[in-house]
Amino acid sequence: MKKIGLTIAVMVGVMSVLWFASSFNQAHHDGAKRIAKTKKIKQLTVKKLTTTASAAVVMNRETGKILGTKNGTQPLAIASISKLMTGYLTLEKLAMTDMIEPSANTVKIGEESELAAVPLNAATTYRTDDLLNAALQLSANDAAIALGDEISGSQLRFTKLMAATAKQWNIKTAKWYNAAGIRNDEMEDDKVNAPNSAENMMSAIDVAKMSEQILKHQPKIIAILSQTTNTFNGTTQASNFSLMNNYFSQTKYQVTGGKLGVSVKSGVSFVGFFTYKKHHYVTVVLHADQYKNLSAVFRETKRILDETV
Predict the structure, then answer these.
(1) What are the transmembrane regions (predicted)?
(2) What is the rounded CA–CA span in Å between residue 269 and residue 284?
(3) In terms of Cα–Cα distance, which of 187, 197, 157, 160 is closest to 175?
(4) Are 73 and 173 in contact (CB under 8 A)?
């Protein structure tokens, strides 16, 4: 009887140990799941930006993760930010030594005093790389339009190429009317079948996605965007990057390139490429203020970087 009792006691002890071990393992497993879930929630958290701009985004270029956003999915006019897509397609489709003769209509657009231009001359050919530099560094509208015409034969066909490229990158909010990002009626004889006031549009998140794809597939575009001067037809002048560099050199963020978009409809907008503590970021600020207040877009870009990185 004592022997049976001892056996039972041993069995009860063993079962208790097994139950305790099982409970401990389950508790440990549940705890690990809770920690993993908490980490996942933390990773998925996107900062709500407090910028005064109509829309903004900060993206980590290395991961593609959106770190902060305001009205990130709302399509807005992007003006000359459009030239990033034109520059990308130029690098993809043309040789830099190709010679391009602008159309008479493109020359006429370049003569408009309200539009940024090189300008170009009739019956004159220009190297592709000179036009590309002018479009990206000086935001020359006539240069961008000449590139689009050379690639596709017309602005209408070029906008279809822009749309097809954006679709490949899963960009769904883009609307394209011309290679330069100017108003449809400013395209003179090359305007498309759309309202006169129509301008290229995209959401801030899609601008960031587009920029990420362009940098991924054509990283050499950074070298073009980061030049502080531009020389065209023997004339040297400060580039748009010099404005960015002058402002951000006074901050802790290193600007490595970017593109301004300025029009009455888009206000002042900016997509910037930054390095901070060895990490790389894309920022987008749309409609920071009225189009004449250029400093506002740099101020708001710094604000959203401060809030996220």
Answers:
(1) none
(2) 8
(3) 160
(4) yes
d(CA 90, CA 130): 12
Residues belonging to the chain: 309
Instruction: Give the pTM.
Output: 0.86
For the chain, the distance separating the N- and C-terminal CA atoms, rounded to the nearest angstrom, is: 74
Report helix, strand or coil for 168: helix
Annotated binding residues for substrate, written as ranges, equal: 259
Instruction: Return phi, psi of residue 236, to 5°.
Output: -105, 135
CA distance 308 to 302: 10
pLDDT digits (tens, 9 = 90+) for 6-64: 343 434 344 444 444 455 455 455 555 554 444 443 445 899 999 999 999 999 999 99
Query: Which residue ranges make up the annotated binding site?
Result: 259
Q: Which residue numbers are catalytic? A: 80, 83, 139
Assess whether the previous peptide bond of 75 is cis (omega < 30° from 0): no
pLDDT score of 162 more than 50: yes
Domain residue limits, the chain: 47-307
Q: What are 223-281's pLDDT values in tens digits?
A: 999 999 999 999 999 999 999 999 999 999 999 999 999 999 999 999 999 999 999 99
47-307 CATH, one of 1.25.40.10, 3.40.710.10, 3.40.50.1000, 3.30.450.20: 3.40.710.10
Cβ neighbours around 238 below 10 Å, total: 13
Tell me the pairing of strands 47-48 and 66-70.
parallel
